[in-house]
Design a protein that fits this description.
The protein is α/β, with parallel strands linked by helices. It has eleven helices and eleven strands. Strand 1, helix 1 and strand 2 form a beta-alpha-beta unit. The two termini are 22 Å apart.
């Protein structure tokens, strides 16, 4: 069965998420010294946030989390996934990794290939390095290069088609049958319209995240003709928001909660499993704890239905019947 990986925003969420069924968790950690030295404009990961539950900010919290992991045996991966860093940051990041390893953390999510190279050249061993979706892995040759630098897991970015995942995985299996990599794909939440590796926006306290600013999609020339009084134009525009059949209404269960309201890949679990995906990412850092618990349970239920289904159609029918009993799903599909 594919494993469920969920995001952790605070130490307090670890036990509820484990009890809900998470197989792995990931979290950010930004020491005060790092923030004081480099500021939010050169962040350690893709969450330049200080004032709500997105990441850990003190080493003592990390120590507490390490003790919890010893008790519950559900691992936590530390995110160091900014797409790039300035030269002075690389030694500081290596020091953070060494401090984390000293208290039992051995898995890290990295996005900057130069950081992966730096760690390789400095002889870092005994760690499980995950290549973030923010790296935008594009093809099997890129995956091969990342493996050579020590990557143990590839997290495919949001815009990767399942057939491309399958091609990369099959090629790696042919080249290295004795040492398979792990592969992770997005399954729930935060279906951003950007590819992370090419997104230079900040996810900070002071500004609305650019990916959450309302927008319309359409043709440029048609929009210009409308502004110039040339009629309605020929561009088709589309508001952001749930896509549903005309006349249908999205029904939210659990007092306003809807599984995958901001991004959903549940219908694609059959194909993801066939492609060779081993882990499913549930984006949840900064979300309400109650909603994330429901997300974990719903994704876990979908995986159980997948295991007992004899065909893709049977899986999709049973999954929708059990997970969306009150009406249609969000329509925010990762994989169409």
């Amino acid at each position: 069965m594919m494993k469920l990986v969920a995001g952790l925003g605070s130490v307090d969420e670890y036990i509820p998420y484990v009890q809900a069924g998470a197989d792995e968790l990931f979290c950010g950690y930004v020491p005060d010294s790092f923030m004081y030295r480099f500021g939010a404009s050169h962040p350690l990961n893709r969450r330049e946030v200080l004032y709500y539950n997105v990441q850990l900010g003190s080493f003592s919290e990390l120590e507490i989390l390490g003790k919890m992991i010893q008790q519950y045996h559900v691992p936590v991966t530390i995110t160091l996934n900014s797409p790039f860093y300035i030269p002075e940051q690389y030694p500081a990041i290596l020091d953070i990794i060494d401090r984390c390893r000293a208290i039992g953390f051995h898995s890290f999510i990295l996005a900057d290939p130069a950081l992966l190279l730096y760690l390789h050249q400095n002889g870092l061993t005994g760690c499980n390095l995950h290549v973030s979706g923010e790296t935008a892995e594009a093809n099997h040759r890129m995956v091969e290069e990342l493996r050579a630098l020590g990557a143990g897991r590839v997290i495919f970015h949001r815009k990767t088609e399942i057939r491309d995942m399958k091609t990369c995985i099959l090629r790696q299996t042919d080249l290295h049958p004795e040492a398979p990599l792990e592969y992770e794909a997005f399954a729930l939440n935060e279906m951003c319209h950007f590819t992370g590796a090419f997104c230079n926006s900040l996810h900070c306290d002071e500004l609305t995240h650019i990916c959450r600013v309302p927008y319309r999609l359409g043709g440029l020339h048609g929009a210009l003709s409308e502004e110039q009084g040339g009629g309605t134009g020929t561009a088709s525009t589309k508001d952001t928001g749930p896509e549903t059949e005309p006349g249908s209404e999205v029904n939210c269960d659990f007092d306003g909660y809807l599984t995958g309201q901001s991004g959903c890949g549940l219908c694609a679990l059959w194909k993801l499993r066939e492609a060779g995906i081993t882990h499913l990412k549930l984006v949840s850092r900064g979300n309400y704890e109650e909603d994330t618990i429901r997300d974990i349970r719903q994704l876990k239920n979908a995986l159980l239905i997948l295991e007992t289904s004899r065909s893709e159609n049977e899986y999709q029918f049973n999954m929708k019947r059990h997970l969306f009993p009150s009406g249609p799903c969000s329509g925010q599909c990762y994989y169409r």
